Amino acid sequence: MRELPASGAHYRACFKLTMKRTDTSNPEYFHKVVDCQWGCPAHTDVPEYIRLIAQGRFDDAYMVNRESNIFPGILGRVCDRPCEPACRRGRMDEKPVAICRLKRVAADHRGDITDRLPLIPPEKNGKKVALIGAGCASLAVANDLMPLGYEVTIFEAQSVAGGLMRFNIPAFRLPIEVLNEEIAYIVDMGVEVHYNHRIESMSQLLEQGFDAIFVGSGAPRGKELKLPGRYDSENVHIGIDWLESVAFGHIDAVGENVLIIGVGNTAMDCCRTSLRLGAKNVKVMARKPREFFKASVWELEDAEEENVEIVVNRSPKEFVVEDGKLKGMLFELMEYTIENGRIQDQDVIGEEFVPCDDVVVAIGQENAFPWIERDLGIEFNPWEEPVVDKVTFESRRKGVLFGGAAAFGPKNIIWAVEHGHQAAISIHRHCQGESLTDRLPVTLNLSSRKMGLHEWSYSNSFDPVARRKMMHVPLATRFSELGKEVELGFDAELAAQEVERCLNCDIQTVFTDSLCIECDACLDICPTQCLTITSNGDKEDLVKRLKAPVVEHEQPLFVSDELKQTSRVMVKDENFCIHCGLCAERCPTAAWDMQKSLLNFPQAIDYVDGNKSGEHPCQKRKAG
Amino acid sequence: MSFIKRPKFDLPGQKLNEIGLALRDYEGTMSTLCAGCGHDSITAALIQALWEMSIAPEQLIKLSGIGCSSKTPAYFVHGAHGFNSVHGRMPSVATGALAGNRDLIGIGVSGDGDSLSIGFGQFGHVIRRNVNMLYLIENNGVYALTKGQFSASADAGSTSKKGEVNQMHNINAVATAISMGASFVGRSFSGDREQLVPMLKAAIAHPGCAVVDVISPCVTFNNHEGSTKSYTYTREHKMRVTETDLIPVRSEITASYYAGDTYPVRLHDGSTILLRKVDPDYDPTRRNNALGFLERYRHRGEIVTGLLFIDQNVPDMHVQSRTVDTPLKALGFDRLNPGSEVLAKLQQGMK
Fold first, then answer.
1. Nearest CA in chain A to B3
2. How far is A17 from chain B (nearest CA, A)?
3. Which of B23, B43, B231 sits opposite A565 (nearest CB)?
4. Residue A18 is assigned to a structural domain of this protein
């Protein structure tokens, strides 16, 4: 008289209303568990480098970063940090790990890593590539193509390389030395850079015999605010142009009262730069309420810490100029009806005059291609944007590619770097006469982190410490010189505390169905109740029976095969897993194991035959 | 055992019970038992049952003797009272504690060695006296702390991990308890949480000594082929004869509960144990029927599980002793010890 399966389960099994085993061999599954790496456009292996920092292996941590994001020192200061809002730690105790600032720790404390940079073959492969603009996208392309033997030429309109990283980001956020050093790593690979060489005509460039041309000219045109009085005074500036002039030293002063129009990250740079040029009273004028601001939260905080006033619900109406002198600006006072986080309606409820000496307009920027003739086969859409393939980054004309802000409008540095990686693959494929769309798959390697019975080769204990605060230069001395870096970086103690906050999401819980004896030990020990053994069913039904309710439906759900003894399934909601390894520690049969997921995102070098086993010119990691 | 601390979080979507506590508030310290031990699973079932019943930690006393099983009280409800006594002597200490404070909810955790060998005498008497407590036997069939010798509950013919065959007949904890006049006897399996949790709840609510024998595989010494207390063997040979559910005092019992062979056992405090017969031949209210059934299936090597016997009308220790309703500990020294004059007077009356 044995127990039969419950009738419901039996019915579902008959009609196949059950979930299949989750395919964890698909790299996407474990990649998605590593929220930061999933969030990073360049897929930086964040937990890996944080562990290396914890071990004091700063060079290694730097190289892990460089492999995917190329500019660890720069990005450790000014990255847009898509990883941090994604960070699992933020779901556990509100604040994410300070991933970006830890990147800076790796960069600041590294030794000489020049011997670990990609190796450049003395013999070239005979293919020539032109890159337009020496910004982050072009530099990324150069970084990936030089080790393959390409002859790379960059044409830069300015006298120095760096693009927006140099001209639009003030030195008090990104010191010149850091910028120069990381750009030099690439330029010194033997890239031929033509400075002060603005490309005026694409058709002329096409005639020069390059095998491929990459347009990485950014989005250099600041958006205009065409209101009455705009051109009546010299004291109205366009944000990115103004920042560029400051960077070059052409502008070294500003009036006492400054208004900044717009609340993006450029606006934050403009208001803080004003304070360093002598402004006493800086107001950022925003059209909408705070929840609609485009600037990153931390950039707003940094500006407000410097006593910048952010004024909301002010829509610019007119520049008030008397006798050629700017007196101030007239604003409409706005009122909004907001429902479910969206503006439903708006009303003008009055007007306000705000006196000022200078106005900086920072309401966005766009790319512009007056220098590309429209009869070359490079297509443009009705908004004058180039038509670019989202995977290959090739335009409609073969061999001409776009990347960074030039391709899809302004985003950020880390996106531009990823565009560069992808465009480099396309350029290589194009030059070798291979298909651009035929791309290598992402691969996954898992390796156990078990050291002993209850020992893992990573710090698996949950550390409840709160996010460490970044120390800043005191306000009193901050404005003394334009290039004084505000953030001091984490010292050894702060860094040591912050690294322990990382949950090691890349150390995956890997389940071997056939080993499970259903003793429930893992279910009972799991501190977040993310494991359940239950009868199989369709997803909707299964989710109802989980120990803890599913709160993030976007997070992956693991479902095992039917288990040997009872035909039930092991289910794991990845959302709150803190990768503490307790399930694996309490498992008597090692059905659970903690394994590092090393993902390989193919770069141009991976397309070169014979490089898979031999010496890797990019000196890329082979194991995590 | 693990070296790291098990972290605690307040997670979104976390449920609280009637007294505002989360499930994890009913935990104790980290278990130091072997990974995969059935005992840990039983601990988790206890935590679940106590949380669902909204029992206040300070209302609970946990008692145990010696053995792997007797470490269990450390692993649940760290805010409760506790006593880790001498080997096999947990029933005496429990009797004393619950005599002094009848308002306490007593949970004694014992093992097959602690109850069926060294403490066999005490086991019988706590049942006879019907002390109001849950008497939990975590039954793995081996002396695991001394490296896996057969215990008194090991089945004849089963083998040790080394291959030695057990010659002696076992002591059947549930049959022994029923024959000694127990008022509540159940058997379950550590790997069957769905059955175990409601049974523990019913046992805690039952006004008398509720013996629950839980087959709890020892992963280190008794989970091999040839064992009759392994995960695999138990899953293959267990059969449910009854299903249990506890309906708390405040809930309304609707007619739908009475479908089929379900009937209610009303307890004095107003709560109800719902019993459903899975096997129509089994009657958990008749002692001789239950014993005969158990004996028949023991010969077939089947493990009968469920609520096996219940008689909610057996008087418990306090009724038998006609003690006052107020817990003795609340009476105050004057009333408990009225002095030598009163004693002399009493003795005078007996002459």
1. A454
2. 23
3. B231
4. no
